[in-house]
Write a structure and sequence with these properties.
Distance between the termini: 32 Å
Structural class: alpha/beta
CATH superfamily: Alpha/Beta hydrolase fold, catalytic domain
Number of strands: 8
Number of domains: 1
CATH class: Alpha Beta
Shape: globular
Radius of gyration: 21 Å
CATH architecture: 3-Layer(aba) Sandwich
Order of helices and strands: HHHEEEHEHEHEHHHHHEHEHH
CATH topology: Rossmann fold
Helix content: 40-55%
Strand order of the largest sheet: 1-2-4-3-5-6-7-8
Length: 370
Amino acid sequence: MLFMPLNFLLSWLVGLLSIGVLGGGLYIIYEWYEGELVGLSYLVGGVALVLWSFAGRFISLPLLRRRGTDEPKFMRTGTVQRIKRPDGSVIQVEFYGPADGQPIILTHGWGPNSTVWYYVKRQLSDRFRIIVWDLPGLGKSSKPKNNDYSIQKYARDLESVVAIAGDKPVILLGHSLGGMCILTFCRLFPEQLGDRVAGLILVDTTYTNPVKTSIFSRFFRTVQKPLLEPLLYITIGLSPLVWLMNWLSYLNGSLYISVEVSGFTGTETRGQLNFSAILSALGWPGVLARGTLAMFNYDETSTLATINAPSLIVVGASDIATIPAASIRMKAEVPNSNLVVLKPGGHMSLMEQNRQFSEAVSSFSSICSN
């Protein structure tokens, strides 16, 4: 999911809470051992807090959500190619489905990696050539040596993936930051639209600084400079500590709170919530923070009207990370575009409403391939 202001602040809050619970439990046990706290109840309480810190998710997750029939897994079984980039990063690209099928290149959002496309690979690779890649610094793609995590860099990386996709014109599908990357690609490589690129699918994404198109945008714009940016630089400096804090939040189950609030609407399954939480914890905080700082300079508003490829815009009806109003504006300004609203669905509607999502992608892609 998109590493966005609300999700970022919630992650910090639950992380600090997690440290407080663990520290409190250890302190109570220590004071009981020293004799400052008398009574077995203090020992039991301290031990309970420590146990909750490392195993609370086994209690909270079953209480929060139902088990699904097809829960997402870390599936990486496709044909693999690795692309070396001038900045020293190496991109992991995976191919699924028939070699002669319509190629669809999937670009994930900021925070997870290409395993987030579990349902698309399962549901569409029987008839389409599904191509997924990990953004450098995430998943199995290595970090750029120059610490360039700009969207322009990723758009150029996407162009290198297009170059190895085969002879057929491709469809570019991007979720969240992936959609932002595609819009920047359209500006940098307009000659590829209609010739090398048969169509675009923009999912739960935006055309400008995401702070401006998220819930509570007025508040987040106000605190971007005095609060968000300094906290992101602190995250870079304290990356190992923040990484441990995130995993502690996952183990005690509190990370589910920020993932639920920022990505889902309550109809997701137990496995979908847990899978998304793991993906959130896997990303290195320094990488995520640098990429988020780069997003603050993103603006492709003027690019929208120049896009001459068929476009499908998909958004969850209750998305709060990139609110539906952003998708509605893109539909109004991008020529030859259609809008699909997934209900109920949040920022992770591609997972929560995976059948609806795959049907929309399949229908659009079939039209583009004819």
